């Protein structure tokens, strides 16, 4: 698949998908675009519908951050939102290339679906009291925790200064995060780690 080719530069390959969030007011739909080389969520949009404008808004946000390279591949499944003329026009306007997965394949968009699994597992809440609360907390999770602290399986890019060695929080797990932060809108409290000097071997 073209997305798995060797091109590790940020902003060259996106994966898009939609999920739904339960609230007492009804479903809240979340569309995201994930940068495959970095796994960062570069664009997201939420609404009480999943029409084409939802994924278009998320893609416009991704492009607005100025990180997408010319000819960047925007990959997705074959849902009606992604085959719409509205999205195709936006892809063309932004100078991107559109790609879609194979019919019936559950593996082609695994990276985007994996983020949704992380979101729903680590954010904890199963049903929000209203859409506004859900929207605020999901945005806080994405921007202040996931993009800045949760991503630790991919290399730090010199062009993105926030990925510094002194900000490494690879210790963050669902259980540790549960004890290290009282709310996802607050700063994650990373416990200090005391290193122990190993005894020198005698020869």
Question: What's this, in brief?
Answer:
With 203 residues, the chain is of the alpha/beta class. 31% of the residues lie in helices and 18% in strands. It is built from 5 helices and 5 strands.
Top CATH class? Alpha Beta
Output mean pLDDT. Answer: 77
Number of domains: 1
The major beta sheet can be summarized as:
5 strands, mixed
What's the shape? globular
What is the number of strand segments?
A: 5
Describe the protein in words.
This protein has 203 residues and is of the alpha/beta class. It has one domain (9-180): Ribonuclease H-like superfamily/Ribonuclease H (Nucleotidyltransferase, domain 5), CATH 3.30.420. The protein contains 5 helices and 5 strands, in the order βββαβαβααα. The protein has helices spanning 52-64, 85-94, 110-122, 131-150, 174-180; strands at 13-23, 26-35, 40-47, 73-76, 97-100. It has a 5-stranded mixed sheet, with helices on both faces. α2 links the parallel β4 (73-76) and β5 (97-100). α1 packs parallel to α2 (85-94). The radius of gyration is 19 Å and the shape is globular.
Question: What topology emerges from the helices and strands here?
Answer:
Layout: E1 13-23, E2 26-35, E3 40-47, H1 52-64, E4 73-76, H2 85-94, E5 97-100, H3 110-122, H4 131-150, H5 174-180
Parallel strand pairs: 1-4, 4-5
Antiparallel strand pairs: 1-2, 2-3
Which key terms come to mind for this protein?
203 residues; alpha/beta; disordered C terminus; 5 helices
């Amino acid at each position: 698949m073209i997305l798995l080719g060797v091109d590790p530069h940020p902003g060259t390959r996106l994966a898009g998908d939609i999920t739904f969030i339960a609230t007492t007011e009804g479903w809240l739909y979340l569309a995201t675009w994930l940068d495959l080389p970095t796994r960062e969520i570069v664009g997201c949009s939420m609404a009480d519908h999943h029409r084409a404008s939802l994924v278009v808004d998320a893609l416009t946000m991704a492009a607005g951050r100025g990180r997408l390279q010319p000819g960047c591949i925007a990959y997705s499944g074959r849902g009606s939102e992604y085959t719409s003329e509205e999205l195709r026009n936006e892809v063309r306007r932004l100078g991107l290339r559109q790609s879609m997965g194979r019919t019936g394949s559950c593996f082609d968009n695994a990276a985007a679906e994996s983020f949704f699994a992380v979101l729903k597992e680590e954010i904890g809440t199963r049903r929000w009291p209203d859409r506004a609360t859900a929207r605020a907390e999901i945005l806080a999770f994405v921007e202040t925790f996931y993009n800045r602290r949760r991503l630790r399986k991919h290399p730090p890019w010199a062009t993105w200064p926030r990925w510094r060695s002194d900000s490494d929080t690879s210790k963050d797990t669902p259980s540790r995060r549960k004890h290290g932060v009282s709310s996802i809108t607050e700063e994650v409290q990373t416990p200090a780690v005391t290193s122990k000097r190993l005894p020198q071997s005698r020869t």
